[in-house]
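Weekly puzzle thread! Below is a chain. First person to post its structure in token form gets bragging rights.
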Amino acid sequence: MPYTNKTPVALCIPRIEEGITENFVREIFSALDIGTIKSIIICKTNNSTGRKAFINLTSWKDNSNAKRVKYRLANDLAVNIMYQIPWYWKLKLAYSN
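Winning reply:
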């Protein structure tokens, strides 16, 4: 799916550790500067001990980071977000059913 800079998108971190807050996720994504954040939602997974995060962007930025992430997501390639060496999150598109 091609993305324009004005395409809203929902991203998902399928596994996020306990203790990671919405503010922390916002800080990491703000530093990446890939898009304008509309909202961040952290919720439990179907497995009662797991959590996941949804990051809703209203638009993409026009920079190399954003272009790289858009390309990788559009081509179903891995996107790893390093938040604290050596820890990282896997980033995926969030699809609605």
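Puzzle host: Confirmed. Bonus trivia for everyone else. The chain has a mean pLDDT of 91.
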